[in-house]
Amino acid sequence: MDKKRFLIKVEEVFINNGFEPAIINGVKFMRHKECYCKLTYIKDWSAFVIESADNIQDAEKGVLEDSDLYYTDVSENELLCKLESDLIRDYLDN
Known about the structure:
Layout: H1 3-16, E1 20-24, E2 27-32, E3 35-42, E4 47-53, H2 56-61, E5 65-71, H3 76-91
Antiparallel strand pairs: 1-2, 2-3, 3-4, 4-5
Helix pairs in contact: 1-3
């Protein structure tokens, strides 16, 4: 899996669901209202994780909570669909 290309697709998923890019302390987050998310790749586990903060102060301090792991041993489409489903369920107001 081409991680750079995949991260661009993930950013599109965030944007299509109402998130906007926000740079905090030189780190790119995706923001929706007061929720700040970033996607991190964990090389040792070959997986991505969404890290999030409930406000800008926690994002600035790096106080982030982890969500589920998204392993790269599935198809890119399957991974994007699961990530979008979890994003909607966990981070967006319904």
